[in-house]
Amino acid sequence: DAGITQSPRHKVTETGTPVTLRCHQTENHRYMYWYRQDPGHGLRLIHYSYGVKDTDKGEVSDGYSVSRSKTEDFLLTLESATSSQTSVYFCAISGLRDNEQYFGPGTRLTVT
Amino acid sequence: DAKTTQPPSMDCAEGRAANLPCNHSTISGNEYVYWYRQIHSQGPQYIIHGLKNNETNEMASLIITEDRKSSTLILPHATLRDTAVYYCIVRLYSGNTPLVFGKGTRLSVIA
Q1: Closest listed residue to residue B106, CA positions, set B5, B3, B6
Q2: Is A92 helix (H, G, I), strand (E, B) or coil?
Q3: CB contact, 8 Å: A34 with chain B?
Q4: Across the interface, which of A42, A50, A92 has its CB nearest the CB of B104?
Q5: Which of A40, A99, A106 has its CB closest to that of B95?
Q6: How far apart are CA A15 and CA B71, in angstroms?
Q7: How many CA atoms lie within 13 A of A52 on its CB side?
Q8: What is the pLDDT along chain A (112 residues), one digit of tens a residue?
């Protein structure tokens, strides 16, 4: 395993509530990513970070914000969860010279 | 949008070679072909990548055509644990470029 954990692993929440997902790494990698995966789709990029306090939007960033105050943690926040954000969320990391991205185990979020 | 085209599903007998095709006719000269797989809702796992030469590692072989418009991932002796969705991805040679996933090929290895 590449030293990536995600928390929580499962969460059920109600529409309109705020939700924060955490990705934690022990590899000291510079780059971190949040993807979501829905049935019938491959993974789609939400946001990514290329360093502490440096982030950028991905393909499906609407309704999501991120923060990275230290190298090891990358937080994904849904300010007001909607049913369309029901999904499996994957975090990934990569180093400066890596050819690979390493993925976490995923967080299954259900918004009712 | 993904820059690759893959068949949605394939079957392979256990112990036989699994050959997974991928078309990437718009690939540019500085883009590599990467393969990842995702086993039953786990996070995707890197398999192999290449530019123009054939590549082999402990998991698989990658054959890229001379014009680089298509490639084939080969699992030489497929096992039941190779059942997964396989993604072919074209990207610049950089560990930090975000991955753009298509829908992949669902490989079922049958006993």
Answers
A1: B6
A2: strand
A3: no
A4: A42
A5: A99
A6: 44
A7: 5
A8: 568 999 999 999 999 999 999 999 998 898 999 999 998 778 999 999 999 999 999 999 999 999 999 999 999 999 999 999 999 999 999 876 666 889 999 999 999 9
The token pair at B5 is 């085209």
Q: Which chain B residues are within 8 Å of A42, Cβ to Cβ?
A: 2, 87, 101-104
Q: Half-sphere exposure of residue A40, counting CA atoms within 13 Å on the CB side?
A: 0
Pairing between strand B18-23 and A10-13? unpaired
Q: Measuring CA to CA, how many Å separate A23 from each of A103, B9, B12, B35, B76?
A: 10, 32, 36, 24, 35
CB neighbours of A99 closer than 8 A, spacing ≥ 6? B34, B46, B49, B93, B95
Q: Say which residue the tokens 């392979």 belong to.
A: B12
Question: Measured at the alpha carbon of residue B43, what is the angle toward residues B37 and B46, in degrees to the nearest 5?
Answer: 40
